[in-house]
Amino acid sequence: MIEFHLDAASGVATYLQLVQQVRQAVRLGLLEPGDQLPTAQQVVTKLAINPNTVLKAYRDLERDGLVRARPGLGTFVVGTLPDTDPRTQARFLRSMTQWLASARAAGLGPDDIEAIYRTAFRNSFAEGVA
Q1: Sequence-distant (≥ 6) Cβ neighbours of residue 69 within 8 angstroms
Q2: b/e string for 103-124 if b means 16 or more Cβ within 10 A?
């Protein structure tokens, strides 16, 4: 089961962070059709957020065909996202993990690393590389 985490400094709405985390977990194969999402009450208790925020995220995911609520049972993953080769994902995850370790060993902190990543990401898509 997925465990949600929030980044208050991200500037991304809370419900969108939940949606993004579910989509990323499905994309990476961490959640598959049949897997259950935490109940809204579980998310509310863990993250101390408004229940409507969780329900909005789950409704968005349901509208996209990724999950389906089953009354009395919970919310379950029912859809998938376009496949990406798991070996390719694993290769880039290893590469990114090594890069992060190198950046930390060089004395860069989380804010520095995030700034570098976001800049590179933005530049890559702005230039049409990705």
Answers
A1: 58, 62, 75
A2: beeeeeeeeeeeeeeeeeeeee
Q: Output the pTM of the full model.
A: 0.72
Render pLDDT for 30-41 as a digit per residue (tens, 0 to 9). 899 999 999 999
pLDDT for residue 130: 46
User: Which of 33, 50, 30 is closest to 41 using CA atoms?
Assistant: 50
- Find the mean pLDDT for residues 45-65: 96
Residue given tokens 């598959």 in the structure block: 32
Extents of the domains making up the chain: 14-77, 86-126
Average pLDDT, the chain: 91
Q: 14-77, what's its fold? A: Arc Repressor Mutant, subunit A (1.10.10)
Specify whether the backbone of 105 is left (phi greater than 0), alpha (psi in -120 to 50) or beta. alpha
Rounded to whole angstroms, how far apart are CA atoms 128 and 122?
10
